[in-house]
Amino acid sequence: MSDQYLTAVLAEAEHVAKNYDQVAQSTESPTHEYLRYAVLRLLEGQSEAVAERFPQVDGVTVGYGRDKSMFDSWGSDVEWWETVSPREECTRFRLFYPDDRTTVPRVIIDVMTALGAWRVWDGDATACGSYDHHERREVHYLWPDGHPVEELLQERLQHADGTVAPDGGQTGDIRDRMVVAEQVTHQDALEPRTRRAVDEPMNVSLLAKGGRYEVASASGNRYDVDIIGKSCTCPDWQQRTPEGGCKHMRRVDYEIKQGRVPRPDGRLPTELDVRS
């Protein structure tokens, strides 16, 4: 494992945790979320925490999500899982790069190796997803929950200044709170169906840039919500397409507006975005 790249990944994840803790306020595994978002920022050139000499490759785009959730949504359309069957306990990274490169860019290999992920597929980019990847290539890596890198990040957060709590900076059970008080739209003002969607325990995370999110319900089911294309893989949407969206679409929309998950373009909202 490269110390240089491991240090860069941890430094960027620590930066995200301290400055953008909303990215993990809707998940029960904040260190996992900080680290995978740190990979996105590092490889897409968004990082503000690492030295300028960190190598960059123009045109790299990162998407990620739960491997089993991706399989449930796309398993009938693609053949990624022929070699390694879908794994509930793993994040699958999809990393896109220009097709004029004959091999996977070295910086991608080094960052993913430092993270502790393993390569499972590569090839021409497919049309599967929410945005266009013609004339590009992609490589996939699996990264398991509870990897020791998460423990290293937790130690950094605890030792930095003693103010970052294990749940991303807030206290109490993550299922019992919404967002920081000054950022919350008063729930009494919400439409009743949206208010019920907000009250119900769900975890929301970015699945792929372009507006695709993953929603994990309290029942253990996971659904793929395309907030731009206005669709959801849940039975309610597939069978009824209720006006205003199913509860999962409503929850994703609320989480985006409250700044708790990245925007559809993959970037974190600014304070002005949240207040507006």
Summarize the structure.
The chain has 276 residues and is α+β, with helices and mostly antiparallel strands. The chain has nine helices and eight strands. The protein folds into two domains: 3-150, no CATH class; 178-275, no CATH class.
Word description of this protein:
- 33% of the residues lie in helices and 18% in strands.
- The chain is α+β, with helices and mostly antiparallel strands and 276 residues long.
- The protein has 2 domains: 3-150, no CATH class; 178-275, no CATH class.
- The chain has a 4-stranded antiparallel beta sheet with strand order 1-2-4-3. The protein has a 4-stranded antiparallel beta sheet with strand order 5-6-7-8, sandwiched between helices.
- A hairpin with a 4-residue loop joins strand 7 (222-226) and strand 8.
- Helix 1 (3-19) crosses helix 4 (106-115), helix 1 (3-19) crosses helix 5 and helix 6 (192-199) packs across helix 8 (247-257).
- The longest helix is centred in the first third of the chain and has 17 residues, at 3-19.
Which geometry do the CA atoms define? globular
Q: Average pLDDT, to the nearest integer?
A: 78
* Spatial ordering of strands, largest sheet: 1-2-4-3
- Unreliable stretches covering 5 or more consecutive residues: 163-186, 271-276
Report the β-strand fraction as a percent range. 15-25%
Q: How many β-strand runs?
A: 8
Helix-strand pattern = HHEHEHEEHHEEEEHHH
**Whole-number count of domains:** 2
Helix fraction bin: 25-40%
Largest sheet: 4 strands, antiparallel
The total of helices stands at 9
N- and C-termini, Cα separation: 44 Å
Radius of gyration: 18 Å
Q: What structural category do the secondary elements indicate?
A: alpha+beta
